[in-house]
Structure formats: structure tokens, C-alpha cells
Amino acid sequence: MNTAGEVIKCKAAVIWEPKKPFSIVEIEVAPPKAHEVRIKILASGICRSDDHVLSGEIKVTFPVILGHEAVGVVESVGEGVTRVKPGDKVIPLFIPQCEECRPCIHPRGNLCKFNGLGTFAGLMPDGTSRFSCKGELVHNFISTSTFTEYTVVHESSVAKIDAAAPPEKVCLIGCGFSTGYGAVINSAKVEPGSTCAIFGLGGVGLSAVMGCKAAGASRIIGVNRSKEKFPKAKELGATECVSPLDFEKPINEVLFDMTDGAGVDYSFEAIGHTDTMAAALASCNRNYGVSVMVGFAPALSEIAFSPALLFTGRTWKGSLFGGWKSKDAVPKLVSEFMQKKFTLDPLITHTMPFEKINEGFELLRAGKSIRSVLIF
Ligand code: APR
Ligand code: ZN
User: Fold this and answer.
1) Residue 289's closest CA among 266, 256, 258, 260?
2) Is the CB of 68 under 6 A from ligand 1?
3) Which CATH class is domain 177-295+306-322?
4) Does ligand 1 come within 6 angstroms of the Cβ of 229?
5) How far is 161 from 152, CA to CA, in rounded Å?
6) What pTM did the predictor assign?
7) What is the pLDDT of residue 118?
8) Where do you find CATH 3.40.50.720 in the chain?
9) Ligand 1: does its nearest atom lie under 6 Å from the Cβ of 204?
């Protein structure tokens, strides 16, 4: 059935207010306007950042459709769209790439000025929404919204990928995998022989472990409170794993002891807590150490730290979507996956039908899953 130009009625998981479960309801998805693309979602991963909205740590306007780590197929395109066509397999991009703004043009930039991360306004670039439910406007989430059978994104927020790529796996390239892996490869540029520490061994931290291994790091130390994640971290390349709960002294001192007083060359924080961000900084060498913040800290949180920590030469930096320019990198990462340059299977612990979305979030909160993927 050709639905191009029509309003599509479909199922979506809508959040009406914070701290409430998802309700699966029928919504109306308007056709794409000029330079927009309507996508039928095939698979969507559940990410910690979606849960940050539910917990209130990310403030958005409700009602909203969350989800930002997905694969879909283009259903129809608006006027002027040239890069994708109906039938193309695509990954929606939560950081757009307009290719014209300063961060897009800058060789080291990836935070396109059209990103929705600062305001979380939840609207298309023209200030309207393509989603409604019983006449009420429903907002989108960071230019994507993938917990719905159909979504509409701007053409700068979508990348065409290999038609043969398995949706239930490569959806992780839309967020979690690329974030952790790229933090190591692009943001830190870890060299062969380095010693690295990864704080947090969830989907993002484990992807950073994979990045460290790919970069040729000789010591990869996983730091996680619970030991349940240690076997998987070792399978993916961690050479040692430690739990802060096993030591009386602060974990940064433990890491100094483990490295003969040198500290690690690179540390990565993939938890999103200010205390572990500070500990990760203090764990790296006081002169040439580099610490990369990958986790998302609660809105309005602040860190107090001694300037002496940086005065001696340390570098402290952040990394968003692994520093990748989204539209350029995503198709390449999918190709690398297809060429078996890295694996995603160990990150996917659960798959379930879209309707079971609340169960997927319960698994995440209970620490029982790494990634759950919803199948549509
Ligand atoms: N010390 C050590 N480990 C901790 C601590 C702590 N204080 N607190 C939590 N952890 C561990 C948890 O046990 C878990 O294994 O950190 C891990 C975090 O993993 P997930 O919750 O699965 O999160 P993930 O999806 O990997 O995302 C991590 O990156 O993109 C951001 O928003 C995301 O802030 C989040 C972070
Ligand atoms: Zn841009």
C-alpha cells in the first residue's frame, strides 16, 4: 500500500509525564515536509539516555516519543530530499550533520548547530511536530524518536546504510556502540601500548573497551561497582577488572598502585556520575594523562575539583557520539561491522517485541541488561 503523502496511523510508546511508564497508543504521523524523511522503524535499542528523561535528569517537553538508537526503512520523502529514497535502509541520527555550520565544517567538530541537545525542544527545525495523538501535539526527542512504528526526521538527521545490515544489531551504531568506541578512537586517540581505565561497564563502557583493544592498548582496566559485568568486559578485551567496593582507599589511588604510581594514560567515564568523573580524572597520569567524559551527568550538576589536578598537564575533555561526524561515520561503521571488524552481539543481551518496552526499561534499571533491542 502506498502511504506517501497520507497521514499514517500507527502505534507509538508515548510518555505523558516524567516517572510514568510508556503507554502504547495510536498516533498520527503527518507526511514529511520539504527536506524531511518518514521512516518505518524496524528495530530500536533501549539506551540509558532515554531513561534519563523518565527519571527527570534530562528535561524535555511532554508528551514525547523517546528512542534514538534505531534502524528503519524510508517510507517516503518530502520535496528536495536527494540523499535517501523510499526503500532505503537508514539509521536516524541524534546529532544531525548539516554539512554547512562551523562544527560540521571544522575537521574536529561533530556537534552540528541544528542539534536538539541544548534545548530538548522536541520539534522539527520549522518549529512544528509531525506527531499527534487525538489532536494533541506530541514532541520528538533529539531529532529522532524511534519508539514508534513511524517517525519523521530532517534529512540532515538520517544516514543510508548497507541494505544487508541486520537491523536488530546495527541499531547500536546509532548511539551506544559509536559513543563508547569513538570516545577512544576519535576523542582520546589512544595509541598502541597505552594503559587505559574504563569507568562503567554498561553498553557504552564495553564499547570503549572494544575501542581500546582495537587501538592496541596493552592494559585495559575495567572499573565497575558490580562484578557481574567483568566476564563480558574480559571477553571484549579488558585485561583486568576492579570494583571500587573491594577497596578502602579511593579508586584513583588503587589505579595509581596498579600502575606503579604512574596513573593510567587514558581514562574514560561511562557512568554519568560527577564523583566518578572526578575519580577518572584523578586516575590518569598527572602530566600527560587524558580523561574523557562520556557519561551524561544529571542536568544542573556541578563538579568541584582542585586546579592542581589539571595544572600539572592533565587533559580533561568530553565526547559526544564518540566524536564522529554522524552522517559520514554511521554508514562506514555499518560497513566495518559487515566486514567483521568488530562485533555487537556481546552487547545485545535481550531482544523483545516493541510492545514489551516497559519490560526492557525494567531490565535496564535492574542492571540485568546491557542492551535490549525492541523489534517492530
Ligand atoms: N562506580 C563504578 N561503577 C558504577 C558506579 C560507580 N559509582 N555506578 C554505576 N556503575 C556501573 C553500573 O554497575 C553499570 O554497569 O556503571 C555501569 C553503567 O552502565 P549503564 O547504566 O548500562 O549505562 P550505559 O548505557 O553504558 O551508559 C553510560 O553513558 O551515554 C551515557 O547516558 C549514558 O550516562 C550514561 C552513560
Ligand atoms: Zn551542522
Assistant:
1) 266
2) no
3) alpha beta
4) yes
5) 17
6) 0.96
7) 78
8) 177-295+306-322
9) yes
